[in-house]
UniProtKB/TrEMBL annotation:
Spans traversing the lipid bilayer: none
Domain Glycosyl transferase family residue range list: 187-339
Occurrences of domain Glycosyltransferase subfamily 4-like N-terminal (ranges): 23-172
Classification of source organism: Bacteria, Pseudomonadati, Bacteroidota, Flavobacteriia, Flavobacteriales
Keyword set, alphabetical order: Transferase
Organism, scientific name: Flavobacterium macacae
This protein's name: Glycosyltransferase family 1 protein
Molecular function GO terms recorded: glycosyltransferase activity
InterPro entries linked: Glyco_trans_1, Glyco_trans_4-like_N
Source taxon at top rank: Bacteria
Amino acid sequence: MQKRMKRTNIFVDCHVFDDGFQGTTTYLKGLYQELVKDTTIHFFFAGDDVENLQKNFGSSPNISYLKYKSKNKFFRLIFDIPKMIKSNNIDFAHFQYIVSPVKRCKYIVTTHDVLFIDFPDYFPRLNALKNKFLYKWSVKASDVVLTVSEYSKAQIEKHFAVKNVWITTNAVSEEFFETYEKKKIQDEIFQKHDISKYIICISRWEPRKKQDLILKSYINLELYKKYDLVFIGDTTFENKKYNELYANLDNEIKQKIHTFEKVPFNEMLSFLRGSELLIYPSIAEGFGIPPLESVAAKVPTITSNATAMSDFDFLKEYSFDPMNQQDFEEKLLLALTIDDLELDEFSTALKQKYSWKKAAIAYQEALKTKKP
């Protein structure tokens, strides 16, 4: 009698979904929506908002959902997760950045970037010291180390003295490629927020994200005479340069600038689709998803060409040095003239270069090297 093959059990720490959308949620959603198609694996998705996880990953015989008892990260890592791993006979547990110190199975960790080491001026010193210790320890404690770009792979291997870091590159969710009526969405945005023609930046607030560069050029080019300016993203670290610039503006211009935090995914998507241009001026990223999502939605886009974003070669004509304001402003004005044909070409090139299927294949290959 032939022995039945044991199904692999994989636990996925999804606490990031409890804090709204961000780069790590995009990564987990895209990667695991592809991976759950493999019925030889049983996936255990854990978080506080289980209903939200079900909306993202769906229902299937090979999917289970687990609810954390506590929202405290220390309790989650030290007590909740080890107990869940033991009671569900987990083979692999997947974490973002920091793993549980109580190891009861093989670990997968995705370290998206180590930017705080290469760009220390943009991060609080204590935060950087803490993360350097925790990220390095987590990488050393893990059986499989993943990241999202060639740039991040090189930096992780260099700073943490490890080899065999696998690349599971980010991609763009199918929602961004869907067709839509731009005028209808713009009317809805106007009705709800009293915002008509606008330029958008979707990014967390940190000094390295360079929202201050956008505001400075918005004023220099007098774009406020024709466009509103919309910022979407939660605050991680204060951008003092931006705050100083904003504080000195006339109230008439301030009324044209809109900042939103804790924005649900569908509302963010509507804001993106209704915009005239997306700007992504970050100085440093481990990958940089927003400009790709914008390209997929066929919205004119300009992006920084620094660090991992230099890989976005199909946007070369519309990429800029984030430390060069003149270069930035030239690309900004150029992008406002992009035609629909170019937007179609960019979207097609993006789909050919990045896909969650490719990321899932790399993930599966990485796990094969650690299976008995």
